[in-house]
Specification:
Immunoglobulin-like; 5-stranded mixed beta sheet; 8 helices; 2 domains; alpha+beta; single chain; 31% helix; Cytochrome Bc1 Complex, Chain D, domain 2; binds dinuclear copper ion; disordered N terminus
């Protein structure tokens, strides 16, 4: 159980410079052990500090007695006889078995009640149900009463109880939102759920807390808690997508890239990530025009050379297994297909790829 809570209340990892992230929430608690509390699940902190205090107390007690005994009863000469031949002390042994047992049972009951709470949504929460879909290695969210989806970011309404249905498209993941004090494993083929009420406005980190493969550590998302007014405006925050000019589209594409693509593809051109770098997909011709580069792929078991163009990018996002890049290590890796990423957003991603073009 200690492990469960260690995961539940993990601190945000150090600096993540991979993706544009909000600054880690400022710890506001006793010795900075817990990230800021932003939900109504207040009982977790009490249990955490109780467990923490018990651990410190027994650590000091046991090591203290050990150190004292080592010094006081050490053998001072080679032939010194043992100070005592006692091997048992039944009352003492019963005491140090029963007391920890009681303490552990208290922790169990407390933790069990809390985890039942987390899994039993209020009526209001069931009417505000989001879906979080975990795939290697990103998060997709769908909204209640709204056809929209967002990737790598989700918006919640302040002070409104929310339920998350959790599903995985591939392997085990875990939905861990330390600031809200909730965490639950996501098991492929099953719906899990949890709920909470976000009580503080701000941006929070959602982590995947179950090792799920190479880029597990990059699988996180931003959770925005916004006012009802902001949440209910005509243009939903998650629908904002500026593609008024190619430059604006490239900018929108870049932010989407950071949310869902950057865990596998870089833009520096450095090799060795899960997927091929994006730099160099397009190059600038002598006249300054952006053109697609050639690339070796395997399609239907046949090796061929293709020229990168918009249609190829669209196909690679929706059905990545169709044309596989021959170059290793990329050939052996498989990309998560995103069949429902809409055309406009793919267009933005393509504009962003094109904006990386340089003269060869
Ligand atoms: Cu998904 Cu770790």
């Amino acid at each position: 159980m200690t492990t469960v809570f260690a995961l539940l209340i993990q601190d945000p990892p150090g600096k993540i410079n991979y993706v544009e992230n909000p600054a880690p929430p400022a710890p506001n608690d006793f010795w900075g052990q817990l990230p800021v509390l932003a939900s109504d699940f207040t009982h977790v902190d009490g249990l955490f500090y109780f467990t923490y205090a018990v651990c410190i107390f027994f650590f000091v007690l046991i090591l203290g007695v050990l150190a004292f005994s080592c010094v006081k009863y050490r053998r001072k000469t080679w032939d010194q006889p043992a100070a005592s031949n006692t091997t048992h002390n039944t009352p003492l042994e019963v005491t140090w078995t029963v007391i920890p047992l009681i303490i552990v049972m208290i922790m169990f009951a407390w933790g069990f009640a809390g985890s039942m709470d987390m899994m039993t949504p209020s009526h209001d929460a069931t009417r505000n149900t989001y879906k979080a879909t975990a795939s290697q290695w990103n998060w997709k969210f769908t909204y209640p009463n709204h056809p929209a989806q967002s990737f790598g970011e989700v918006w919640l309404e302040h002070n409104k109880p929310v339920q998350f249905l959790l599903e995985s498209t591939d392997v085990l993941h875990a939905f861990s939102l330390p600031s809200m004090r909730v965490k639950r494993d996501i098991i492929p083929g099953r719906f899990q759920s949890l709920w909470f009420t976000p009580t503080e406005l701000g941006e929070y980190h959602l982590f995947c807390a179950e090792y799920c493969g190479q880029d597990h550590s990059r699988m996180y998302a931003k959770v925005h808690v916004v006012t009802s007014a902001e949440f209910n405006q005509a243009e939903k925050p998650w629908d904002k997508w500026d593609d008024s000019t190619p430059a604006a589209a490239a900018k929108s594409g870049e932010s989407l890239y950071k949310q869902i693509c950057a865990s596998c593809h870089n833009t520096s051109g450095a090799r060795g990530m899960t997927g091929p770098p994006w730099k160099g997909l397009f190059v600038k011709g002598p006249d300054g025009k952006v053109v697609g580069r050639q690339r070796e792929v395997r399609e239907n078991g046949e090796n061929k050379t293709i020229t990168v163009d918009d249609a190829y990018i669209v196909e690679s996002i929706r059905t990545p297994e169709k044309k596989k890049v021959l170059e290793e290590p990329y050939f052996k890796n498989n990309m998560t297909a995103m069949p429902d990423l809409d055309e406009r957003k793919i267009k933005g991603i393509i504009e962003f790829m094109k904006s990386l073009a340089e003269a060869p």
